[in-house]
Amino acid sequence: MGDVLSVRMDKELETRLAFLMNRRKIVDKSSYIRQLIDRSLSEDLLDYLSEEIAAKHISIWKAAYIADIPLRAMMGELAKRNISMYDEHALTEDLIFAEGK
């Protein structure tokens, strides 16, 4: 399956987790925590990639490729974060990236 990760949770975190698991009728704690980690990592990756686009370190197309999402979805993420979509530098990088693929 994968690596085993052991995590200690404080009382407040355990209480919130138990509350949600109870309300959502979730019985598999490990599976639920894996889903939460996956969702959180995906969001953090999009935050990072958005910052890189804003700093003009990578293009939108390349960020979408790294995030493994469609270009249109990446553009939607940028719009949610009020980040400028495109400029000449990004276009040039996209063309170079597309030619190398």
How would you describe this structure to a colleague?
This protein is an all-alpha fold and 101 residues long. The chain has one domain (11-100). The protein is built from 5 helices and no strands. Helix 2 packs antiparallel against helix 3 (60-67) and helix 3 packs across helix 4. The radius of gyration is 18 Å and the shape is elongated. It starts with 10 loop residues before the first helix and ends with a helix. The mean pLDDT is 92.
What descriptive keywords fit this protein?
101 residues; mainly alpha; 5 helices; 0% strand; elongated
Give the biggest beta sheet.
none
Helix content: 55-70%
Distance between the termini: 31 Å
**Beta-strand residue percentage:** under 5%
In total, how many beta strands?
Answer: 0
Poorly predicted ranges: none
Estimated structural class:
mainly alpha
- Mean pLDDT, as a whole number? 92
Q: Note the total helix count.
A: 5
Provide the fold topology.
Blueprint (H helix, E strand, L loop, with lengths): L10 H13 L5 H26 L5 H8 L3 H10 L7 H13 L1
Helix pairs in contact: 2-3, 3-4
Structure, briefly:
This protein is 69% helix and 0% strand. It is mainly alpha-helical. Helix 3 crosses helix 4.
